Automatic annotation (TrEMBL):
Identification of the protein by name: L-rhamnose isomerase
PANTHER family from the UniProt entry: L-RHAMNOSE ISOMERASE
Keyword Ribonucleoprotein included in the entry's annotation: no
Listed GO MF terms: isomerase activity
Coiled coil location: none
Amino acid sequence: MVQFSDIASELERQAIELPSWAFGNSGTRFRVFGTPGTPRTPEEKIADAAQVNAYTGLAPKVAIHIPWDKVDDYAALRSYANDLGVDLGTVNSNTFQDEAYKFGSLSSGEASVRRKAIDHHLECIEIMHQTGSRDLKIWLADGTNYPGQGDIRSRQDWLAESLREIYDALGDEQRLVLEYKFFEPAFYHTDVPDWGTSYAHVTALGPKAFTCLDTGHHAPGTNIEFIVAQLLRLGKLGSFDFNSRFYADDDLIVGSADPFQLFRILYEVVRGGGYDVDSPVAFMLDQCHNIEEKIVGQLRSVLNVQEMTARALLVDRAALLEAQNANDVLGANAILMDAFYTDVRPDLAAWRESRELPADPIAAFKASGYQEKIVAERAGGVQAGWGA
Ligand code: LRH
Ligand code: MN
Ligand code: MN
């Protein structure tokens, strides 16, 4: 049996990047509900994110989104973040809210549209030099709604050409991560629908290009941990966008819809070296808190990832291997399930206290008065939202 004390030191290096947009207002196509205290500026989003790190020690970076987090001086934004104990992380591009991209962006059939989309990414790379960010994350809304609408084969070639130009502009320490999603907003075909398509493109690009796996971007029933194992095996898993889903791209709190799936994913991460000290895998959240409190929602999320990482580390891998080699089907399964069913919360609480963190970060945050303070201070301002 592996004990908590055997794995505790491995928890120290856990780092989960928070998305700035999780702190802004968001909603569905039906309604965006406002929440009192919601940030009005990129700085206020970063200040809220810094709270999550202060109470958990788990979230040292904030991912930004261009143009949602557009500012005049990115170096100043970075030092603002640093003063609050966090750093800026992944830069997310946006080619899905401009009229010009109605029929696609990097895979559009129109050269002038592709040019505009490529230039946006070149601007993101410039910003990354100022923010010190390593990763440029590309998620494309590109696709078609009706069979015959576009030449799906040519669009792959245009996409490859566009990505090549972006890739070639990366600095030595910078990386490109290409996210896939099987549908939405396009409903017939999507230009980067699956891990295989992303893998084909990033492999063609070179060693600084990787795949981003968003856990909400698969068809129901997909064995996501298998994709994790395969991408790690191929050396191309660059990052995770964690969230959970009941139906489609729900962007709910990671580990809330299916904690067992999160465990299985994290077990493959650990098994495949994705949690090793020198791992190239970046762990991020990509969530929206439409109706729940946003800072508490982010606290809950990083704690869920921490709890499930601890359980994944608790798997007795030597015993599991032995059972697997002996074709002991149920014995092997029991070893995995033993770790999954281990309640690590009391051990984690004690471990946090030993590191001068609150045993219960959510209770400590709620008692701090921060939420009441921002509700009072930010009253009457225009709140930032998904897309603002
Ligand atoms: C759209 C999406 C995608 C991106 C994010 C900014 O599906 O959720 O996952 O990462 O918007
Ligand atoms: Mn995502
Ligand atoms: Mn998504």
